[in-house]
Amino acid sequence: MAEDQLLEAFDSRVKRRSERREFFKAAIGAAAIGATTLVVTQEAFAQTVTDADILNFALNLEYLEAQFYAYAAGGAGLAASLLGTSPGAVTATNARRVDNLDSDPLVRDYAREIAADEVAHVTFLRAQLGTTAVVQPAIDISATATSPFSNAARAAGLIGAGATFDPYSSPENFLLGAFLFEDVGVTAYKGAAPMILNRTYVEAAAGIMAVEAYHAAIIRTALYAKGVATPSLRTSADAISNARDSLDGTTTDLDQGISPTTINGGAASNIAPLDADGLAYARSTGQVLNIVYLNNAAVTSGGFFPAGVNGNIKTSAAN
User: Fold this and answer.
1) What single DSSP character describes residue 206?
2) Count H helices, E strands: the chain?
């Protein structure tokens, strides 16, 4: 099909994707490359960062995902040997192996696979960074009325004031909790990769990004399939996606929900959120921190990282 015919078939979705592509180009174009460092100006603040800074930023996110999946799949967090010297504490009130996980073998097996992958990412990044690897920051993956999971779900309209969103209470809630992280991880690596100078580190970031994209597709596919029988799962995922957009300062949806779309006049799934060129979207480090801090202002802590992330990249964007 000719390009103009393809764009026409996508109808209004093309307009959204074109807007996002222009935002992405502007953000990446703002990164000025130096001899050994990068001046990151796509944030609301300017800072000079090294390749190690970027990988350490990614390591903070991997600590968070690995701890969540380790509890959800196996009922316990990461081994102390993976956390560094004097790491931050993990607040895991009511965190546990997902209730009735064995009743859904598909989700159970997904959880086990992703958990193992995230532990491998932490191990790999720590090995790559060596003595410059940051220790695990304080992390909150608890399930209480005031926990980050509940605050995020409340912002998305999934629960009311004083209620608790418990991502460990069912396979479906686990998928929604995982959905909160996975698309963000893909956009984080996509945004960081062009800023890395060392080819070895670029390869490492590209490899992890590919795996995170697989994970996101697993979670999105499971939610989409379950949403056939339970449409509220799809609308809940859409609401979480919208809540993320309200934090990262963009005017369009960088990762979209999972509700069906229309292609060539027929219903189609929306598992892979892509722009009109078929490319994944990117977020700056500041935008990623907006989401994990659950704050659209320029702050250095909050949400899932109550004391902030470790390393030189730690401030969210001012949106």
Assistant:
1) H
2) 9, 7
Residue 156 pLDDT exceeds 90: yes
* Range of the structural domain that residue 188 is part of: 3-293
Q: Does some domain include residue 85?
A: yes
Paired tokens of 296: 């659209």
Q: Looking at this protein, which amino acid is placed at residue 46?
A: A
Of the candidates 220, 304, 203, the one whose C-alpha atom is nearest the C-alpha of residue 259 is: 220
Tens digit of each residue's pLDDT (9 = 90 or more) over 67-104: 999 999 999 999 999 999 999 999 999 999 999 999 99
Residue 190 lies in a domain: yes
Q: Residue range 220-240: average pLDDT?
A: 93
**Based on C-alpha coordinates, what's the Rg of the chain?**
19
Q: For residue 316, is it within any domain?
A: no
**In the predicted model, is pLDDT for residue 34 greater than 70?**
no
Number of domains in the chain: 1
Domain contains 44 = yes
Tell me the per-residue pLDDT of 237-248, one tens digit each, with 9 for 90 and over.
Answer: 999 999 998 998
Taking CB atoms within 8 Å and a gap of at least 24, the contacts of 82-88 are 82/119, 82/122, 82/123, 82/126, 82/136, 83/135, 83/136, 84/126, 84/133, 84/134, 84/135, 84/136, 85/135, 86/135, 87/135, 87/136, 87/137, 88/135, 88/136, 88/137, 88/138, 88/139, 88/307, 88/310
